Amino acid sequence: MSTVVETDVLIVGSGPAGASAALALSTYGVPNIVVTRYASLADTPRAHITNQRTMEVLRDLGVEQDVIAQATPQHLMGNTTFCTSLAGEELGRVRSWGNDPLVQAAHELASPTRMCDMPQHLMEPVLVDAAVARGTSLRFETEYLSHTQDADGVTATVRDRLRGDTYEIRAKYLIGADGGRSRVAEDAGLPMGGQMGVAGSINIVFEADLARYTAHRPSTLYWVLAPGATVGGIGAGLVRCVRPWDEWLIVWGYDVTAGAPDLTTEYAESVVRQLVGDDEIPVTIKSSSAWTVNEMYAETYSNGRVFCAGDATHRHPPSNGLGSNTSIQDSYNLAWKLKLVLDGTAAPKLLDAYTAERAPIGKQVVTRANQSIGETAPIFEALDGLSPQTPEQLWANIAARKDATEAAEKQRAKLREAIAFKVYEFNAHGVDLNQRYPTDGTAAIVPDGTPAETFARDPELHHQPTSRPGARVPHAWLTSGTRTLSTLDAVGKGRFTLLTGIGGEGWIRAAEAQDVEIATVVVGPGQEYEDPYGDWARLSEISDAGALLVRPDGFVAFRHATASPDAETLLTDALRRILGRG
Question: Residue 388: pLDDT band by 50, 70, 90 thresholds?
Fold first, then answer.
């Protein structure tokens, strides 16, 4: 056994969760090592939808523009199409990913960022390159084998796959970001709910110039109803755009009980031909792989000094595009807590809040993603496509919707309704932004005594901004001299921020009296920050002299609606609770 390598945080896995954990920790000045058993970063597109909350995280970590430079922009993502093949009949479309005019307005009001389509093989290098530039040590071909922990740290045994030898890495904390079959989560004994392997899928990555079938209805996703293709006489294939309009990925189902088919080039090309509907167009198969649809979530995200994030804790299908988003947000939530514990600002108890805050989100995401799969069934029902029948009969059912009959008119209405209902998968703005952390003492949040929140509209579809403790601070545009910035730009950067206004001098003095770094933002006429549109006055839900204490991850930790002669005591007590000091 060679000399033990030492670091503050060891991260196992270089995917979205591991890479973003490394980026955040290095940004905060925390020494960390990333190990991955692979020889490179992701070489296939995998995850891709990048929602507004994740873009806010990347904005705070200083890589938003690097992502935008390579991503497919929002306006090319949103004509989710249902068809019999790309070259065949179109059954309907859903304006998706914020491209419905009303939803687009909601997106612009909710955040300074725009969602985009950033395939994982492009996202990982952005995150890892920035992390390494800021201090992360990255070790490829290094396989995690096991770990032991004691009161002072974690000792992981790893194997160098090039040399074949093993050695130890000693860290104060270990993050398992090693995917859906996480060995770290297994070794840590994290309890799991749900089940793995509920269905089978195949990814086929290919190149083909499909502009003639897609450029006029630009989208990330094209759903193909392909009769007679899979078990039960019906099949639904997904043609996903990786890069407009010549790089693609097909997702195709198989009977998980029978096992995956032989993934030959001929088989892959036959699936591509069927879903594209053009036997003449040149096609180059890049790769094929089988995977299983899972419905599993960790009930606890940590054991002692070992924490898990990303697919290690929530395993689900790609519906709603929540996987890498939730993974990056997990790591962002954990990183600032580790930083403050490691530098002595916070007690280790603060780390207990990671599970309390993120485990409910992980469970929600798993449930929502699997529910979205089931919500595709009404489209088949509208075409009488769920009962056993010949492919010819299903084609006849599809054709019948064009008849000038009362039955056909009802069928058309039923199909429109079924397709429109898919907004719960493709426009779930509330799922993206309505995350709420508990105020029951388990999280790093101080309740303010106000009544429980109620939602005016469907909380899965519609974002509801609020400054309540446990919610992300609302976005509003402010000005500072000639500069325009979001309230979200004024917070973050690895430190707490206190927001107040004219008359809030007592809160400023209270913040300056703390032994914790707290940036102060005063909003009002003649102040460093002004509210030219009046949006912050409406969204802050406090008086000018009130205060919001915002955590490094942009979530409101403490709120007081007015000035207070006891501001210093109130803020001191709030920080003691937030930081787990007693």
Answer: low
Nearest Cα to Cα of residue 173 among 330, 334, 57: 334
Task: In whole angstroms, give the CA distance from residue 172 to residue 32.
Answer: 10
Closest CA to 463 of 539, 353, 356: 539
- At position 184, the amino acid (one-letter code) is V
Q: Are 48 and 205 within 8 A, CB to CB?
A: no
Name the helix (H) or strand (E) containing 418.
Answer: helix 406-420
Give the span between the Cα atoms of 344 and 346, in whole angstroms: 5
- Cβ atoms of 473 and 550 within 8 Å: the answer is yes
Is residue 213 pLDDT above 80, yes or no? Answer: yes
- State what percent of residues in the chain have pLDDT above 70: 97
What is the maximum alpha-carbon separation in the chain? 80
Q: d(Cα 417, Cα 425) in Å, to the nearest integer?
A: 14
Q: Which residues contact 248 (CB under 8 A, 6 or more apart)?
A: 205, 206, 207, 208, 210, 239, 240, 241, 242
Question: Residues 334, 175: contact at Cβ < 8 Å?
Answer: yes
The CA–CA distances, whole Å, from 471 to 169, 465, 475 equal 37, 8, 12
**Does this model's pTM top 0.90?**
yes
Amino acid at position 248, single letter: W
- DSSP string across 233-272: G--EEEEEEEETTTEEEEEEEE-TTT------HHHHHHHH
Average pLDDT of the segment spanning 413-429 = 96
**DSSP string over 549-571:** EE-TTSBEEEEESS--TTHHHHH
> How far is CA 338 from each of CA 29, 32, 344, 412, 498, rounded to the nearest angstrom?
11, 11, 10, 55, 21
How high is the pLDDT of residue 386?
59
Residue with tokens 């039923």, as numbered in its chain: 414
Query: DSSP 3-state assignment of 460?
Result: coil
Reported as type and span, the H/E element at residue 155 is strand 154-160
The pLDDT confidence band at residue 231, using thresholds 50, 70 and 90, is very low
State the Cα angle at 531 between 113 and 108, rounded to 5°. 25
Dump pLDDT digits (tens) for 440-493.
989 999 999 999 999 999 999 999 999 999 999 999 999 999 999 999 999 999
What is the rounded end-to-end Cα distance, in angstroms, of the chain? 42
Of the two residues 582 and 346, the one the predictor is more confident about is 346
C-alpha to C-alpha distance for 248 and 223, rounded to whole angstroms = 13
**In terms of DSSP bridges, do strands 547-550 and 518-523 run parallel, antiparallel, or are they unpaired?**
unpaired
Three-state SS at 577: helix
